[in-house]
Amino acid sequence: MKAGVNGVTLNYNLAGSGRLIAFGHSLGMKGEIFDPIRPMLEQCGSLLTWDARGHGSSQKLATGWTIEDLAKDLRGLIEYLGGDQAVIAGLSMGGNTAIAYASAYPDKVERLVLADTTAWYGEGAIAAWEKRAQKAETQGMEPVAPFNLTRWFSDGFLHSSPQEVQRIVDILLATNVASYGAACRALGHFDARDGLQRITCPTLILVGADDPATPPAMAEYLHENIQDSQLHVLPGLKHMTPVEAPEQVGSLILEFLQDR
Q1: Long-range pairs of 74-79 with CB within 8 A, sequence gap ≥ 24
Q2: What is the CATH classification number for the domain harbouring 218?
Q3: Residue pair 25/72 in contact by the 8 Å Cβ criterion
């Protein structure tokens, strides 16, 4: 399904009933990466997934946008669907978006779920993400896949689930190069540390114990600076915890959402 919001056309999928749960994907991906976890989350709400601008089947905008723009896109999409308050969840870049959203619209967030993400990528982030942007722009998406796979998934998952790994690789390789570069630059400039104090809703923070992209120290910083938060470090997992371990992550999210 398509929606025109905030000056961009977004592709989205909405299924289930009850409270709205919006789950944002990571860099170079699209909303369908959450298909394995979708049946669990639809047990307690209506799950909204979407392709961020520049990704999947959404409009390709190569330059001039920020993570805060992604949060505005999400707000516009929720309003387009007739919603107001929602559970906001995100993985990696989707988690950055969720943080920006909760900082900008604190009264519109029922609960917050942050998976393998951060409020800031650290000193040198702008230069590091610029390097990644330029590599994709000059060499294409082919070299991006092998660099990321060993960061995203445990060795065991890479060997035991080749079809699921290939599904993720195919999504990455189909990503628009210019939009990927723009997203890298947006991530490099992202710094939401000052906004964490505005997040007052119950917050669940998840991170793979072996995540090299947004390591547990980044999750611990979120936990320390979001007042009503709980942190779960997941042994044996790396960066894409909802994709590699949908039942484990789904169970934690369900327990969190059902806790009154």
Answers
A1: 74/22, 74/24, 74/50, 74/101, 75/6, 75/101, 75/104, 75/105, 75/108, 76/3, 76/5, 76/6, 77/3, 77/5, 77/10, 77/12, 77/22, 77/48, 77/50, 78/20, 78/22, 78/48, 78/108, 79/5
A2: 3.40.50.1820
A3: no
The count of structural domains within the chain is 1
Helices 93-104 + 177-189 axis angle, to 10: 50
pTM flag (> 0.85): yes
For 100, the token pair is 């920006």
d(CA 196, CA 15): 30
pLDDT tens per residue, range 202-213: 999 999 999 999
The range of the structural domain enclosing residue 14 comes to 2-258
Q: At a CB cut-off of 8 Å and minimum separation 6, what does 211 contact?
A: 116, 151, 237, 238, 239, 241
